[in-house]
């Protein structure tokens, strides 16, 4: 950090930021003072000092209250982010006091969560019971965005859509297959190209999921469009829709194998190159992750992982 950056950070007072946010939320210095149990004159003085520190007006003051200047709107966004980070830091540190010795935030795609992560994370927790893992399911594009913005320490997803300047490490491979009802015209085929499935209605995952984007690109490559019947948010819902005759769909082979009894269905191998995928770990910088997160990365990337 540059010397000027350090000096700026020292001049910013967290209490003043809290009061600034309160004034913005309530639209009045007086109401903010009542809520924060502080004199209105003291609030006004802190805001004036904050404006002096930043060398720009933050509020338009008038008889009815206050309005934000453009600089004030920008500061409100950053102030909320800073205060939220402090609250999260307090929450995580309190867990250390209660015996938790590590905290890893993971965002992962549905394919990774259904196929691989339950066993892998379970094995890790059995070895490191003091570590807390927060796992959230998101689309692959949202996973990489969360890692980029710092909302997650680690991402687990298909990265065919790109990762920008994020670092990646290989995790697992999966294979996409076409799911059809038992007795369907394609059920007798051992393997097909996806183009053959374009004759039929499709049950698709969300429109910005990596699987649906691959399907749409494959259709466009042969000058066709998908006959989309419905979007669903989960693989079990896809199976139920296909079982009830609403179309055919694409999902990972292992995920289908794990869904025992979800309809009378068959899996047909897809010969397209895009059907063979790699699921990867994603981080801003693996070398700067907290120790517990690095331990988890090592566990997930070791050849001995179940």
Contiguous helical run count: 12
Biggest sheet overview: 8 strands, mixed
Low-pLDDT stretches? none
- Oligomeric composition of the shown chains: single chain
The portion of residues assigned to helices is 40-55%
What coarse outline follows from CA principal-axis ratios? elongated
Mean pLDDT: 88
Rounded to an integer in angstroms, the radius of gyration calculated over CA atoms is 26 Å
Note the gap between the termini.
Answer: 42 Å
Q: What is the beta-strand fraction?
A: 15-25%
Which structural class matches the secondary elements? alpha/beta
In short:
The protein is of the alpha/beta class and 306 residues long.
Description:
The mean pLDDT is 88. The longest helix is centred in the first third of the chain and has 28 residues, at 70-97. The chain is built from twelve helices and twelve strands. It is elongated. Strands 3, 4, 5, 6, 7, 10, 11 and 12 form an eight-stranded mixed sheet that branches. A two-stranded antiparallel ribbon has the order 1-2. Strands 8-9 form a two-stranded parallel sheet. α2 (14-26) packs across α3 (29-36). With 306 residues, the chain is of the alpha/beta class. Helices cover 45% and strands 23% of the residues.
């Amino acid at each position: 950090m540059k010397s000027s950056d350090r000096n700026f950070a020292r001049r910013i007072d967290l209490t003043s930021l809290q009061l600034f946010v309160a004034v913005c939320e309530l639209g009045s210095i007086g109401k903010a003072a009542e809520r924060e149990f502080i004199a209105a004159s003291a609030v006004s003085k802190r805001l004036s000092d904050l404006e002096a520190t930043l060398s720009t007006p933050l509020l338009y003051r008038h008889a009815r209250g206050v309005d934000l200047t453009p600089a004030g709107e920008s500061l409100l966004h950053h102030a909320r982010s800073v205060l939220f980070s402090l609250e999260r830091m307090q929450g995580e540190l309190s867990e250390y006091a209660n015996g938790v010795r590590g905290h890893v935030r993971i965002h992962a795609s549905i394919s990774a969560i259904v196929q691989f992560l339950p066993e892998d994370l379970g094995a890790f927790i059995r070895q490191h019971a003091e570590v807390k893992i927060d796992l959230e399911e998101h689309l692959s594009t949202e996973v990489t965005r969360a890692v980029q913005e710092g909302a997650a320490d680690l991402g687990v997803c298909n990265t065919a859509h790109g990762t920008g300047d994020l670092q990646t490490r290989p995790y697992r491979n999966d294979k996409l297959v076409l799911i059809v009802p038992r007795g369907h015209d394609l059920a007798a085929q051992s393997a097909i190209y996806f183009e053959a499935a374009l004759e039929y209605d499709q049950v698709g995952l969300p429109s910005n999921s990596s699987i649906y984007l691959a399907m749409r690109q494959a259709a466009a490559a042969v000058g066709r469009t998908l006959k989309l019947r419905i979007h669903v948010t989960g693989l079990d819902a896809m199976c139920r829709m296909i079982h009830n005759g609403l179309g055919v769909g694409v999902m990972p082979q292992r995920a289908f194998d794990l869904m025992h009894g979800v309809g009378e269905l068959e899996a047909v191998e897809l010969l397209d190159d895009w059907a063979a995928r790699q699921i990867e770990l994603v981080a801003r910088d693996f070398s700067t992750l907290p120790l517990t997160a690095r331990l988890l990365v090592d566990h997930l990337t070791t050849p001995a992982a179940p």
